[in-house]
Amino acid sequence: MDNLGELLHGFSIAITLPHLALMVIGVLLGILVGVLPGLGAPNGVSLLLPLTFGMQPVSAIILLSSMYWGALFGGSVTSILFNIPGEPSSVATTFDGYPMARDGRPTTALATAFGSAAFGALIGVILITFLASWVAQVALAFGPAEYFAVYFLAFASFVGMGGAAPIKTIVALAIGFAIAAIGIDTVSGSVRLTMGVDELVKGVNFVVAVMGLFGIGELLVAVEEEFHARAVSSKIEWREVFRAIGRLPRHSVALLRSAAIGCWMGITPGGPTAASFMSYGIARRFSRRGRYFGTGEVEGIISPETADHAAGTSALLPMLSLGIPGSATAAVMMGGLMIWGLNPGPMLFVDQKDFVWGLIASMYVGNIVAVALVLLTVPVFAALMRIPFVIIAPLIVIICVVGAYSVSNSYLDVVMMLGFGIVGYLFKKLFYPLAPLVLAIVIGDKAEDAFRQSMLMSKGSLGIFFANKLVTCLIVAGIALLLLPLVLQLPRLWRKPASAATETTAQETAREKVTI
Amino acid sequence: MGRTSTLLLSAAATVLAGTMPALSAWQPQKPIEFVATAGPGGGTDNLARAVQNIITKHKLVEQPIVVVNKGGGSGAEGYVYGKASAGDPYKVIFGTSNAWQQPLVSKVAFNYTDLTAIAAMAQDEFLLWVKQDAPYKTAGDYLKAAASGEFKMGGAQSKDTDEVLTRMIEKAGHIKLTYIPFKSGAETAVQLAGGHLDSHVNNPSESLGQWRGGTQRPLCVFSPKRLPQGAKVTATEGWGDVPTCVEQGLDIKQYEQPRTVWLPGKVTPDQAAFYVDLMKKVQATPDWKDYIEKTSQVDTFLTGAELDKFIKEDLEHVKQVAGEQGWLVK
User: Fold this and answer.
1) To which H or E segment does residue B329 belong?
2) Which residue does chain B place closest to A49, by CA atoms?
3) What global pTM score does this model have?
4) Is CB count within 10 Å lower at the N or C end of chain B?
5) pLDDT tens digits, residue range B88-99?
6) HSE-CB of B164 using CA atoms within 13 angstroms
7) Which helix (H) or strand (E) segment is B51 a member of?
8) H or E segment at B254?
9) Which residues in chain A are closer than 8 Å to B69, comparing Cβ atoms?
10) 8 Å CB contact of A184 and B291
């Protein structure tokens, strides 16, 4: 119970007027960079970093982490309203958030997302508070083989859940892996797949890919299908905000499961992106309304959002206690720690108690501030949906172009973004799933590095993936998730001979419609 | 106009003419972009941001400065960008020795000669680190144990400074190591703490927290003499207590990584001189001393012919190692 005493001391540091003011400023700035695509939390935090050099380390980290919370919330707004994920970790939120918003329920979608996000963050902070020292030990057990096993599990949980035709999922994955391979390879140091374009040495930025795939791709589909009837008449309804929050406890199983997945992936550190995908995949398999996922299901929003925030929050723990950042934003903050003269590592908890516990306390307070501020903005954001499509469509194009350009001030990125738009459109038209493609682009290269590092260590033997209990469990769980759909199919194949083929085709088409 | 005034006027003109070169020397007229050839949070990024902060705080330049990260392709993204901006004096590129090392070993679309070298501002040292509870106390013990050929050495990136040093250790110590590349030094340090590796050759700042926390300790430093004493890192030891590798029978006298500053190619000598001068001013501030101390680097300033000589020597050396390993790109 030592930790509780320290936490109370932390609260006395965090709840002071200047610090509360910093939190409000940080959260508002964060919402802003989160909503503006192409900026995102890592960039926002690095822009703000130089301003903090003259501050007390505690005040500085409170400002930066509040900005992080704000950006995490803000990132969900564009995903839900315009199908443009501002952060890798909010991609999975688009799958059900966007259909729901388009259905005329943007308020419900946003409020549900924010509510479950706050819940995820809260679980993450509680975990940090009570299990800090234990968690640090868990993370140390992760070598390359264990990392690979975690990524494998993320892939497996997503791929195995079905949705699209398995072969199409594999095709999408393979394309994603190829895109992730572009640029310099960590293990061999050589340049791959740049096709003579010098600038491609930096690889394909994730933001560029998703803006095209989701933003532009969706726009093309919309223009073709129904472009006059797209303005949604959504009333500004304050009560709906609270009703949506009030309905959350009904989905407590989904909330708890997603928070657990999020915390696990944040600590291990698979990161928020893998967490949100994995959580969505598992929810789709185990939820009672799983087959409606992709059409605007509440649990389809709850699962990725809760996991994303639980992971984002618990990712700060490995950063503080081990000096490994669990996310890009955590990496920037770690740079900040060094400049403020603090060394992230095991001694931080001993030497800099005020700093560490002030920060942890500020996570509680900062998240409450963030969720209060962000819920206030829901009706305003929801009102954006009422703008007619003819006005919003060019705006989306502008946002995507500016966003892609601002990633690294490169014209090539804009061209690639438009190219990805066409790919996104083709995927939609041909019923190929976008999610595996995106997942492979984001964690494909990490999985590859981890696999090849493991192979170097074991001198080429696959035995390293069964060398200890931890890695064996992860791999076996992954394989089980991968094979589950096949096993479930077996008895049905047995019972149904070829005569029932017509019925199956009907089912298949119905299922393809909801392919995401 | 009387004769005196004419005289005075011409005198004034002469005086003015005398000061002219100083006045006409190049000054930036629009915002300056600092390009860090690393992702946010790394050593190179920290340097770029520290310099930006010092310049802004002491008002060394009138124009605003923005830092952008172009760390893709192990930094190649930033250098290629610098090459593409030839003649543009508003882009300052911050990097390391990979500006000349990377083109040797991988097919990247730049060479350091495409850029204008401004200065090497700080040297990062390298140390040989092992896990805290490892049985060996000296580099000699380590080499003896490593003779089994089963040792795993971790490092940041492939065919980069860490792997070059690893190959040098192999040669000097007559051992064979399995080199495992990771994305960064921080990641490598954690892998060592978890016991997944036997050793690594991190810079002081990359493993400082881990040393204090008692997960790993340095065996020796690859430097001709011991590091300055400074404050104690652990309860009993500071950087100055770490023996040199030569003392312990690992014959590698010196291995350092300079933090380098570049302009794009084809800039005028005036423009280059402005930035050399600016970096000198930055280095004279107490904030710089503070930065150097906090990141446990060594303060140096190489520019002009000295820097050129340093690059050439390092290049020769790396070429030799890379040649032996068969890394050179044709």
Assistant:
1) none
2) B49
3) 0.84
4) C
5) 999 999 999 999
6) 28
7) helix B43-57
8) none
9) 46
10) no
